[in-house]
Amino acid sequence: MDAIHLNDLAFFAYHGVFDEEARLGQRFLVDLTCWLDLSLPGQTDAYEDTVCYASLVKAAEAAVTGNRVQLLEKLAQIIADAIFDADERIARVSIKVRKPGAPLPIAVGTVSVEITRDRPAIS
User: Does the keyword S-adenosyl-L-methionine apply (predicted)?
Assistant: First the structure.
């Protein structure tokens, strides 16, 4: 299956377990991979035949900045749900959320979570 990749999307938000994270906020970096059939836009070169990259960025931004969660795992799931809502042609999504300012007991380091989800079947 074909894929669209959006990497290093940076958003400022207030996620984390500690009170300081909720009060001060920090930067989160998001990578998205969206799997779908891109054969039609590959043939037609028509904008309407593909997924709008900007709409994916806006969906991710709304998911990251419009919620307050403790865990990166939950944040990744919220982003995945938002991406599926953004365009029905997306069959699978992989979300990687990095937290460069995570409170770790070392001088530098990055924490990240990556999930892959298939579009839920409609019942």
Answer: no
- 63 domain residue, yes or no: yes
Q: Give the count of domains, the chain.
A: 1
Kindly tell me if the per-residue pLDDT of 111 is higher than 90.
no
Q: Is 96 a catalytic residue?
A: no
Q: Could you tell me the sign of the dihedral formed by the alpha carbons of 9, 52, 71, 96, in that order?
A: negative
Looking up residue 101, the CATH number of its domain turns out to be: 3.30.1130.10
Q: Choosing from 58, 74, 96, 99, which is the catalytic residue?
A: 99
The pLDDT tens digits of the residues spanning 48-102 come to 999 999 999 999 999 999 999 999 999 999 999 999 999 999 999 999 999 987 7
What domain range is 96 assigned to? 2-111
Which uninterrupted H or E stretch holds 118? Answer: strand 111-118
Report the predicted TM-score, pTM, of the whole model to 2 decimal places. Answer: 0.92
